[in-house]
Design a protein that fits this description.
This protein has 82 residues and is mostly helical. Helix content is 66%, strand content 0%. The longest helix is centred in the last third of the chain and has 29 residues.
Length: 82
């Protein structure tokens, strides 16, 4: 036998019914803090500064990735003793 029950309720009502904690105040505080931090760091979001950071970091990451791939490729090749 198969029984299907459809319950219509809001997410708040579902959390209360299941006994889950109300985290809406915590969520509001976290959003406020994120907004405050973003506003404090708006000067670092300049496109020129971001591009300088990304290109400097990207070049080093490309070299590291290539080195990693070369090591991985050479470690998978069986060594032959001749």
């Amino acid at each position: 036998m198969k029984v299907t029950i459809d319950i219509e309720c809001t997410p708040v009502e579902a959390r209360a019914f299941l006994g889950l904690p109300d985290v809406s105040t915590l969520n509001d505080r976290m959003v406020e803090e994120m907004v405050r931090r973003m506003e404090a760091n708006m000067d670092s979001l300049e496109p020129e500064a971001l591009m300088r950071q990304w290109t400097a970091f990207g070049g080093q990451m490309t070299d590291n990735f290539m080195s990693f791939m070369q090591q991985a490729a050479s470690s998978g090749v069986p060594k032959t003793d001749k």
